[in-house]
Every structure is written in structure tokens, then in C-alpha cells.
Amino acid sequence: MTSLPAATSRRLGLAIDLDTCVGCQACVTACKGWNDRAEGHVGGLGDADPYGAEPSGAFLNRVHAYQVEPEAGPPQTVTFPRSCLHCENAPCVTVCPTGASYKRAEDGIVLVNEAACIGCGLCAWACPYGAREMDPTARVMRKCTLCIDRIYNETLPEEDRIPACVRTCPTGARHFGDFADPDSAVSRLAAERGGYDLMPDLGTRPTNKYLPPRPKDRPAEVAPLAPLLDIRAEGIAGWLDRILSRL
Amino acid sequence: MHPAPSVIVFTVASGLGFGLLAFLGLGWPVPAPGLPAFLHWGLGYLLAAGGLVASTFHLGHPERAWRAFSQWRSSWLSREGVAAVAALVLLAPTALSDWLDLGLTRLPGQAGAVLAALTVLATSMIYTQLSSVPRWHHWSTPPVFLGFALAGGALLAGRTWVALPALVGLGLLLAWVFADGETRFARAGQTTGTATGLGRIGRTRVLEQPHSGPNYLMREMIHIVGRRHARKLQALSLVLAAALPAAIVALVLAGVLPALAGLALAGVLHMAGALAQRWLFFAQAEHVVGLYYGKR
Fold first, then answer.
1. Which among A171, A180, A189, A35 is positioned nearest to A112, based on CA atoms?
2. Is B67 close to A122, i.e. CB distance below 8 A?
3. A180 vs chain B: nearest CA distance in angstroms?
């Protein structure tokens, strides 16, 4: 049923640290690798013309790069991973005509039942965040499952029971946990760092939180190469410099 | 948004078809038994049902389309499908009665007329509900779809005194919607700064795209090509969908033009204008996901 659950007992999601993310795209690759397996829950992330002139494929995670210009100080580069936010008020779920899209009452994860998806694309239209992409080969909608086939998978070592993007992130910019528990690591992180929602005015109430880049703690006007400009010549060159300066 | 031909044909044909069927269901007019009734009802069924079939062409898995009847409690797309089939079924006894002169009660036809109107309303709500597309997320979207069904249905049903004010009203509404639509995205207040939340630090713009080629999102939501001739298409749709048919209907009412030929010509022009309007409806609609790509 594509009606949303009134409340979910847990709210699993990600806290994404924009201060730590370096835009290496490892999460993009790890996500594609894990979810492109036929035996996984997603069951494949198809590519059209993968080795040809116009490759185009389905991904569940994309890393953007922005230039942010503050009122004062130099511009900053911010790399920005974008994936499903597992909204509490998910517009992608209620528009689905077949019941293929649903939000789980037990953990709040938004999923697609591939066997019931007609590939109409309305859920992708309804999502403001571009979290859903049509699989060009299977012609059904794909989305982030928070790696439901890892987080509950007891055949995996315990440290691997987190989403592939979180497991692979080399800088620890992605954190996975339960936002319904105020004492969880992600809840505390979001509270301490001022974790925020994307486009909150749209009323989607995203679960995932973005942690803003920390303010720069050093004055921006000191150029890191400035000491090298103050060159003092020594030896014969120094003697010549002094003589010639007096003339 | 990507203007998929199957969706454009579907919304235009089914809107027009359900408009005509609503008039026939209400018995306004009751066509003469035999061939006239067959042709009149047949045209309505052809447009309405043909449109529904066309709508399945853009599906990834049309063989599963029957599942779309299940979620009427939450989904406007599902409600549209349920209302459309219910309308076509309910109208059938009245259509047969008119055709074969059976003299059955018109009650199912009248109920079917209400469901035909609800079908058009459901179609419009599929787009109106999307807060991600500010140009559609507006009270004026259902009146535009219902206006097309009313004006087009009245034309095809030969109800000149309804068609004339409906066409004039539709033209005025379209002109205002074209003008007002230009600022709706800006009024929704979403920017790359709010989409990323980085606006709190400063002015945010795209430094580098996340992928070198276009993806599904860009092809589907950021359709710039279709907007190139927006001004010309807007003028064309106003003239063809509203102004010319209204003028022809006025000439028919004045007795200058023969009714059947005049209404047929007005109907064809109106449908061409509706296709132009519907192309723009999709091509001009900007999705907020474009903000992540610095595009609209």
C-alpha cells in the first residue's frame, strides 16, 4: 500500500558531513558495485551503452561540487553527495499507482518492489531531490535501499553491516544510524553540528541530515606562500645586494 | 519536463473524449438512434479509450498496468485509472440504449458523466500535486484541464451556447496561466542554495557536474529543447485552441456557417491547439532537481 505509515518505530538514515567529504566518488562506486549484483535487493543497476560513445546508467548516489561565495572571504569548494533522504513524508511513495513504492513502518526505509513497478516514472517526478533513477535496461525504478541487504545481513562480519557508501568512505564523511533514537551517534552528531534538511519548505521531512562545512578558523588574508616572497640573499649575492642597494 | 508524445496524446485525447462522453451521458444531446448515435458515442469512446491505451506506451512495463488500479486510496494516477474505467463501463448501457433505441433509463449515463469529469480532475491532480514542479503545483492546473474537457466536449457535442463561453473562458485562463507561470518557479523560493543548504554560507553555484554525460534525471526533468519556441507555441495554442474555434462557433450561431462543417472545423483546430498547449505544459515545467545541476 502506498499510504505512508503514521509513524515508524525507527528512522534509519545517513548523516553526511560536508566538512569532511572530499568528493572522491568512492561512495558512488561502492554503491554501484554493491547494488549492481543480480542477487542483491536492488537486483542490478543497468547501464545503457556502457562501453560505447554515449554511456548512461542508473546510480543511487551522485557527488556534486559547488562553489560557495561567502559575503566576506574567499570562495569555498564544497563537494556534495546526493542520494535518497528516506523522507518521513515521502512524496514518491504516495504518487505510486501500483503499490510498488512503500515506506517500511519498522525502520522508515523507502523501497521499490521491482516486480510491481510499471516504470511510469511518476515517483521520480515527485521526488524533489532526484533520488530515483530509471534503470535503462530493466525499465523499472531504482533507488537507495540504505543497503537493506547489508544492514540486516548476519552472514556479513559485523563491521560490514552498514551501507556500502558508509563502509567505503575513506574520510568518514558518511554516518549511518537511527535518528529516532536521540542518543544514537547520528542524532548526537546532527545536534552538535547543526545538521539540516534539504529544501525543508517542501514538507518532505527528510530523515538524512547534512552537516554543514565548519567555519574557516584561520584568517583568509594570509596567503600560504607569503613567507617565500621575503627572500634574503646571502653570501656573494648578499654582499652584491647590499652594495648595489647603497648606490 | 520531458514532453513524452504518448502522454501528450493521451491527456489531449482522453480529456476531449471524456468531455464529449459527459455531455452524451447527460443526454445533452441525445443522438438519433442508429448510425448518428453510433458515430457520436463511438467518437467519445475512441478518444477516451484510445488516450488510455496511448498512456501505456510510455511505461517501462505495460504488461503490469493492471496493478495501477490498486492504489486509489493514495495515488491520483491510480484514481484516474479507476475513474476512467468506471466511467466507460457506466456509460455503456446508455450508449447502447441510444444506439439501438432500447429506451433504457439514463441514470447510469448520468453517473458516468460525473465519473468522466472526475477522471479529468484526477488527470490534472497528477500534475497539480507535485510540489517539485512549481509551475504545475498551482490551483489553476485543474481548471485548465477541466476547461479543455468542457470546451472541447461542448464543441464535439454540438452545444454551441456552452462551447462559446467555455472557449472564451479557456482562452483567457490560458493567457493568464502562460503569463503567471513564468514567475512560479521563482515564487516557490527554491534555489541551489536551498537545495544544497549551502545558501546559509553564501552564494552557491555549480563548480563541476557529478557526471560527464546526461543521466535519466537530466533527460526527464531538464528538457530545454522544447522551450525554444515557447512564445510562438503559446500564441499558436491560444489562437487554435480558443480564439479561432470561438469565432467559428459565433459564426455558426449567427447562421453564417453551416453547423456540422463549422463545428467539425472548430473541433479539429481546437485539438491542434490543445496539443500545442500540452507540449508547452510539459516542456516549460521546471523541476527543482535542476537546481542541483545549476539548470532549469
1. A35
2. no
3. 22
Query: From the centroid of its chain, how far is CA A115?
Result: 27
Torsion, Cα B205 B208 B214 B217, to 10 degrees, reads: -40
Contacts of B194 in chain A (CB under 8 A): 198-199, 201
* Measured CA distances, B192 to A61, A183, B106, B146, B206 (Å): 18, 32, 56, 34, 8
> pLDDT of B28-41, one tens digit each?
999 999 999 999 99
Q: Which amino acid is at A130?
A: G
From the list B291, B275, B292, the residue with the least C-alpha distance to B283 is B275
User: Is it the case that residue A231 has pLDDT exceeding 80?
Assistant: no
Q: Are B47 and B16 in contact (CB under 8 A)?
A: yes
What pLDDT, in 10s, does the model give residues B60-105?
Answer: 999 999 999 999 999 999 999 999 999 999 999 999 999 999 989 9
Instruction: CATH number for A12-246: choose from 3.30.70.20, 3.50.50.60, 3.90.76.10, 1.10.405.10.
Output: 3.30.70.20
**Is B132 in contact with A56 (Cβ distance < 8 A)?**
no
Full residue range of the structural domain in which residue B51 is found: 1-129
